Amino acid sequence: MARTFRTIFTGFLLTAALSLPIFAQSGDITYTIQVGDTLSEIALKYNVTIAELAAQNGISNPDLIFAGRTLTIPADGASTAETALQTQTYTVQPGDTLGIIAERFGVRTTRLAQTNNIADINLIEVGQVLVIPGNEPAKPVYPLPAPFTEISLSHNPIAQGETLLVQITLDTTATLTADFETRPVALTTTDGRHYWGLVGIHALSEIGVYSLAFRATLPDGTEAAVAQDVVVSAGDYATETIIPEPGRENLLAPDVIKSEAQKLALIWNRVTPEKQWRGTFGYPVTDPRITSNFGTRRSYGGGAVNGYHAGTDFGGNGDPIFAPAAGTVVLAEKLNVRGNAVLIDHGLGVYSGYWHQSQSVVHVGDHVERGDLIGYIGNTGLVTGPHLHWEMRVSGIAVDPLQWVTEDMEPSSGE
Ligand SMILES: [Zn+2]
């Protein structure tokens, strides 16, 4: 489209900017963040910069915003600091939009348009020289309270049934504890300044905003606390009906199920401090054919949904089962519901279980490395046919094992 090239005179622009009406002064506009929103989209929608939006709302990391939170939108055009010196220029490049340029220089799109007397922000052309408004007011900084310098989450939102990697950096050594709602999160550190830990999100968690609270105790006894919102989103889980093989219905008795679950919980609720796994997990079978996914909502016996699938099932019969990561065998025995079962402690509250085996070849106390044989696929316990049920627990919460095959559940530094 044809457009006249304009030469920019600073003096003219100052006059123009000052003569333009000041935009609405109200700072009362609010916006509730929706799942899937990004700060840049919100900033664009309200014609403010990401930096302004972040500063106005005390957001330290613009990549971490949380559905359900209400943002205050800075008053558009409220700045009257148009008398600042305007000396910086920028030549429009192919692919540029006024919004992109404004973002690049940390100014509002409307201010850039005003400064350059642009009536339609969609009409700029390659080669056009824009004056960048200078002397932007200093942006307020809302740092985390000392000694916290950074809190990083591997996912936010995070889906039901997933594992969240949390990393915290302090500016001085301190003792750090964390709670996800009321559950303690096992943290580890090598230097007292960089901590990390894993949070298992229960597959049946309600969708919504949860609080991850941190408390640091400095050597002099001073305490500091900070909370981080964690948004739990819906997992993509189907529903299925489980009809046990004839003769095994008695295994459904609530007291049988309960006592076995309690026995296992006593083990996997313990946290051993040494991390034994390294990097991603392997598959526990050489030919992984998934027959039932983690998280599937279940009806046992055909009634209402009364549970969920706490692991991933693999088809097979007699196939060898291999440890997917290093750990220590903490249970190897025949259970009523889970049949011949092996439970491996990988450290830091992370456990993996292998149910319904025809035969196990490991014993309590054995150390296993990734790829070591632990048993064979069978149909012992409460099953509809031979298969391996592979279960992962993080501080007692069942999580999707397949996430562990694709994601490194440790800081990238390998710390
Ligand atoms: Zn299963």
Helical content class? 10-25%
Total number of helices: 7
**What is the fold-level CATH name, i.e. the topology of the largest domain?**
Glucose Permease (Domain IIA)
Which ligands are bound?
zinc ion
The chain-level mean pLDDT equals 83
Q: End-to-end distance, in Å? A: 56 Å
Poorly predicted segments: 1-27, 77-86, 136-142
User: Strand portion, in percent?
Assistant: 25-35%
What's the Cα radius of gyration? 28 Å
Total of domains? 3
CATH class of the largest domain: Mainly Beta
Q: Provide the CATH architecture of the largest domain.
A: Distorted Sandwich
CATH H-level homologous superfamily name of the largest domain: Glucose Permease (Domain IIA)
The coarse silhouette is: elongated
**Helix vs. strand class:** alpha+beta
Major sheet characteristics: 10 strands, antiparallel
Count the beta strands: 26
What does this protein look like?
- It is a single chain.
- The protein folds into three domains: 10-132, LysM domain (Membrane-bound Lytic Murein Transglycosylase D, Chain A, Roll); 148-233, Sandwich (Immunoglobulin-like); 239-406, Glucose Permease (Domain IIA), CATH 2.70.70.10.
- Helix content is 15%, strand content 33%.
- The protein is built from seven helices and 26 strands.
- It has helices at residues 10-19, 39-46, 50-57, 98-105, 109-115, 254-268, 401-406; strands spanning 30-32, 70-72, 88-91, 129-132, 148-153, 158-159, 163-170, 175-180, 183-185, 187-189, 194-200, 208-217, 223-233, 239-242, 290-292, 297-300, 307-308, 311-315, 320-322, 327-335, 339-347, 350-360, 367-368, 373-377, 387-394, 397-399.
- The strands form six sheets. Strands 15, 18, 19, 20, 21, 22, 23, 24, 25 and 26 form a ten-stranded antiparallel sheet that branches.
- It is elongated, with a radius of gyration of 28 Å.
- The two termini are 56 Å apart.
- The model is unreliable at 1-27, 77-86 and 136-142 (pLDDT under 50).
- Bound molecules: zinc ion (ZN).
- Zinc ion is lined by residues 292, 309, 311, 313, 389.
